[in-house]
Specification:
CATH superfamily of the largest domain: Glycoside hydrolase, family 3, N-terminal domain
Number of helices: 19
Strand order of the largest sheet: 1-2-3-4-8-11
InterPro entries: Cellulose_deg_GH3 (IPR050288), Fn3-like (IPR026891), GH (IPR017853), Glyco_hydro_3_C (IPR002772), Glyco_hydro_3_C_sf (IPR036881), Glyco_hydro_3_N (IPR001764), Glyco_hydro_3_N_sf (IPR036962), Ig-like_fold (IPR013783)
Family: Belongs to the glycosyl hydrolase 3 family.
Distance between the termini: 5 Å
Structural class: alpha/beta
CATH class of the largest domain: Alpha Beta
CATH topology of the largest domain: TIM Barrel
EC number: 3.2.1.21
Helix content: 10-25%
Strand content: 15-25%
Bound molecules: 2-acetamido-2-deoxy-beta-D-glucopyranose
Function: Beta-glucosidases are one of a number of cellulolytic enzymes involved in the degradation of cellulosic biomass. Catalyzes the last step releasing glucose from the inhibitory cellobiose.
Oligomer: single chain
Subcellular location: Secreted
Radius of gyration: 26 Å
Shape: globular
CATH architecture of the largest domain: Alpha-Beta Barrel
């Protein structure tokens, strides 16, 4: 039993544990979990399931296999139509930040940028707007959002497609993105499940001697699976996600798309997932075994009856049922799982036809390879952008984090002489598209609005920083000079007049390329950007640095006295220049916060990308021996100083937090383990019930309007097993405040929020003893703490 409220204690705490050696168990085994659970439609999908059931009863076995097997067609993934039943098929399109394979579509800020906004409403709106464009183009399924990679290694090439290495922040972003997407009647697909934490050797390769070298195996202990990697996927299921994409990697040496423990066990049993599991493109490596392990759809599939493009699914399923190897009931469940979200989201009613222009851009399937007739009779090249540019501009600014601001550098105050430096400032010179050439695109000249690979977008335009600065300067009657060549600007600034010493501000734009298929090999900005900053700052007392990066950068110039301001602008999408000018000039008060930690040096990041030369078939073993200790969890545990901590970010105003009160909303009779309840999507519903309510008041004590981001961190009692992070994010709010204004902010802590995964009990357990609840403006700027004992 706990009292109704607690005395507020002020405590600047940096809790630390002993650097205990984490135990390493045997990772060459993944427990079998069979049979694959049937969908029951629980969680509100019952009537959609009944429709799916009625539909399935009219299908031949061949038609059933078609519904679970991709085929060449106009989209990146295609389920063929069944005209006899008025079913137009399903169109699946990349990716998480845009409908990539489309013309007249918008390119939105990346997931990383959305996470840096810490703004639930904008994250939701981003989902809505992306899905509106999919629907306008006749695409039924968004292949996104991304929670894998989570961001275990700072070097991960796809980290920007997802949100944050913090599972709570990523989970919130998954939930709101999925709710936004599905509110429009479009299916979301949470990917890549799970442990897809590096691109290097993500798929099998063949050695010089012809041996198959298996994919990297992510060997993850049970606690880390629950508390980090699958946490946001549980949130996705809780939000009603339609599908989940299994990943390329192995888990404990078993391929993720045929791993019965994670598919049948974790996802379909423990999380109660009612939708369908689709494979990543080419990640299906068996037929019946994968199906029995829980895989429901093979993508991109194959061409029926073609030995040139075989599929483990398709006709092979028909044969396996006929020869008695596979129960037709399992196939029926696969089909029901695919069709239930389709009916639930009313995609059988007046869904737009596929825009014919999509098929012309399809590099995967030329039309000559199609076997089925897709309805391409609608209007071509539909413009689906609507007014989404406004949201893109707003979110691009909201996801920009102000890291440093000295000497009143920002906001700019009518500068008359402006210098712009760096190859990230100007227009793109090698096309607007970062997909082709093996996902290349690390071009020297041009701003970096997004990253590369299937998660990119095909921009119709990009507002560059230089364009937006020129437009603003013209209005102000200011003079803009620029050198976009990093090599030249690093060696010779003499072409400028007035010289840099007399400029009001020197704006340096830096970029970092990141893409699917490759991991980063450095945490520094690309193209010798550090040297460029040094050169400009040597000659300019007001040097403002902006980075456009698909992940974190170390910033060796951060303490340079002439570097007066630093902004991490991430990947902002097509309105990039407008977003940054809004922040630089103070039309928008920066309110982004770091969704990761910026330490001092590359060497501070102790989780590398595994990169082997001449490996044997089973040599790619990624032992996640750090377990729970990634990003700030690791730096806190090791008590290491960092440059800019997780959750950090400056504003043009100041905020204060007044006190902390904690209320027991569970009625004082909390059990350590959740009461047994029927699983609902997301897991045991008891896990999502609020048990504690934390309240504070936040005030804008400065002179301009701005948004504060108060954050709540939970420190577990000392009774938890070793290796538990000292504190973990479990609540945040984005609070817009006018000068002087105060608002009351509450945080609801759920049972899961104050539990750890007990590997013996196989349950979420609230530990005995006292917790420290810390409220502050970042993970290391704690203003108030309260000691609570939920089980006392
Ligand atoms: C990973 O852990 C296993 C023990 O489970 C060990 O045999 C192997 O050497 C480790 N691999 C690496 C690359 O550390
Ligand atoms: C991998 O092995 C570890 C250690 O035995 C275990 O805790 C974990 O649940 C296993 N994961 C999978 C996906 O089988
Ligand atoms: C799924 O439902 C079928 C009947 O449609 C039944 O035969 C099968 O046993 C069920 N499977 C499970 C795992 O409950
Ligand atoms: C069945 O799967 C095997 C293995 O991929 C393949 O060789 C064969 O062509 C497939 N059959 C059909 C009809 O797709
Ligand atoms: C049944 O069909 C499947 C799929 O083609 C095949 O892999 C399996 O070997 C067949 N089994 C028998 C007993 O014929
Ligand atoms: C598209 O239009 C053509 C010609 O009008 C017609 O033959 C075809 O059946 C239509 N296709 C679909 C899928 O409606
Ligand atoms: C960039 O500047 C360097 C050094 O001044 C010069 O060698 C190089 O040709 C320039 N690049 C372009 C594309 O002009
Ligand atoms: C810039 O600063 C460096 C180092 O102080 C100096 O050598 C160089 O002449 C300066 N360049 C210009 C154009 O002022
Ligand atoms: C891995 O090694 C290859 C070959 O040496 C290199 O090209 C690549 O950059 C490395 N990858 C990373 C992430 O360091
Ligand atoms: C800062 O800029 C001024 C003006 O160009 C220059 O004189 C000074 O040396 C610079 N400071 C540093 C530390 O580079
Ligand atoms: C960063 O690394 C360099 C050497 O690589 C070292 O001199 C410096 O002290 C390190 N900085 C910090 C803050 O650890
Ligand atoms: C943690 O860091 C603080 C401040 O830097 C220091 O006072 C303390 O001794 C450190 N504790 C440990 C265990 O290293």
């Amino acid at each position: 039993m706990i009292p109704a409220s607690y005395r507020a204690v002020s405590l600047a705490l940096l809790a630390c544990g002993t650097a205990a050696q984490l135990e390493q168990s045997s990772y060459a085994y993944s427990p079998p979990v069979y049979p694959s659970p049937n969908t029951t439609g629980l969680g509100g999908w019952e009537s959609a399931l009944a429709k799916a059931d009625a539909f399935v009863s009219q299908l031949t076995l061949d038609e059933k296999t078609q519904i679970v097997t991709g085929t060449p067609g106009p989209c990146v993934g295609n389920i063929p139509p069944i005209p006899r039943l008025g079913f137009n098929g399903l169109c699946l399109q990349d990716g998480p930040l845009a409908i990539r394979q489309a013309d007249f579509a918008s390119v939105f800020p990346a997931g990383l940028t959305a996470a840096a906004s810490w703004d639930r409403d904008l994250i939701y709106q981003r989902g809505v707007s992306i899905a509106e464009e999919y629907k306008g183009k006749g695409a039924h399924v968004v292949l996104g959002p991304v929670a894998g990679p989570l961001g275990r290694s700072a070097y991960g090439g796809r980290n920007w497609e997802g949100f944050s290495p913090d599972p709570y922040l990523t989970g919130v972003a998954m939930e709101h993105t999925i709710q936004g997407i599905q509110s429009v009647g479009v299916q979301a697909c949470a990917k890549h499940y799970i442990g897809n934490e590096q691109e290097t050797q993500r798929v099998p390769s063949v050695s010089a001697s012809g041996e198959t070298i298996e994919s990297a195996s992510s060997n993850i202990d049970d606690r880390a699976i629950h508390e980090l990697y699958s946490w946001p996927f549980a949130d996705a299921v809780h939000a009603g996600v339609s599908s989940v994409m299994c990943s390329y990697n192995r888990l404990n040496e078993s391929y993720a798309c045929q791993n019965s423990y994670t598919l049948n066990g974790l996802l379909k049993t423990e999380f109660g997932f009612q939708g369908y599991v689709m494979s990543d493109w080419g990640a299906t490596l068996s037929g019946v075994p994968a199906i029995e392990a829980g895989l429901d759809m093979n993508m991109p599939g194959g061409i029926p009856f073609s030995s040139a493009t075989p599929s483990y699914f398709g006709q092979n399923i028909t044969i396996a049922v006929q020869n008695g190897t596979l129960a037709e009931e399992r196939v029926d469940d696969m089909v029901r799982r695919v069709l239930t979200p389709y009916f639930y989201l009313n995609q059988d009613q007046d869904f737009p036809t596929i825009d014919p222009s999509s098929s012309g851009m399809n590099t995967l399937f030329p039309q000559s390879a199609w076997v089925y007739q897709f309805d391409l009779n609608g209007t071509s090249s539909r413009d689906v952008r609507a007014n989404h540019a406004a949201l893109i501009r707003e979110l691009g600014a909201a996801g920009t984090v102000l890291l440093k601001n000295t000497n009143g550098a920002l906001p700019l105050k009518n500068p008359k002489y402006i210098g712009v430096f760096g190859n990230d400032a100007g227009d793109l010179t090698n096309s607007l598209y970062f997909f082709l050439d093996g996902f290349g695109g690390q071009y020297e000249y041009g701003t970096q609005p997004v990253g590369g690979g299937s998660g990119t977008g095909r921009s119709t335009y990009v507002v560059t920083p230089l364009d937006a600065i020129k437009a603003r300067a013209k209005k102000d009657g200011a003079l803009v000079q620029y050198i976009l060549n990093n090599t030249m600007a690093s060696t010779d600034l003499s072409y400028l007049y007035p010289p840099t010493q007399e400029l009001d501000v020197c704006l340096v734009f830096l970029k970092t390329w990141a893409t699917e298929n490759y991991d980063r090999s450095s945490l520094h900005v690309d193209w010798d950007g550090d040297a460029l900053v040094e050169a400009v700052a040597a000659n300019c007392t007001n040097t403002v640095v902006v980075t456009h990066s698909g992940g974190l950068n170390v910033l060796p110039f951060a303490s340079h006295p002439n570097v007066t301001a630093i902004l991490a602008a991430h990947y902002p999408g097509q309105e990039s220049g407008n977003s940054i000018v809004d922040v630089l000039y103070g039309d928008v008060n920066p309110s982004g916060r770091l969704p990761y930690t910026i330490a001092h040096n590359d060497s501070d990041y102790t989780i590398p990308i595994l990169n082997l030369t001449n490996p044997g078939p089973n040599d790619w073993q990624l032992n996640f021996t750090e377990s729970l200790l990634i990003d700030y969890r690791q730096f806190d545990y090791a008590n290491k100083s960092v440059l800019y901590e997780f959750g950090y970010g400056l504003s043009y105003t100041n905020f204060s937090l007044a006190g902390i009160t904690v209320q027991d909303v569970a009625g004082g009779n909390l059990s350590a383990l959740p009461p047994a309840q029927v699983v609902a999507p997301g897991g045991n519903p008891a896990l999502f019930e609020s048990v504690l309510k934390v309240t504070t008041q936040v005030q804008n004590t400065g002179s301009v309007a701005g948004a504060a981001v108060p954050q709540l961190y939970v420190g577990m009692p000392s009774t938890v097993p070793s290796g538990t992070p000292p504190k973990q994010l479990r609540g945040f709010n984005k609070v817009p405040l006018t000068p002087g204004e105060t608002k009351t902010v509450t945080f609801a802590l759920t049972r899961r929020d104050i539990s750890y995964w007990d590997v013996e009990a196989q349950q979420w357990r609230i530990p005995e003893g006292t917790f420290t609840l810390s409220l502050g403006f970042s993970s290391r700027d704690i203003k108030h703490s309260a000691i609570v004992c939920p089980l006392c």
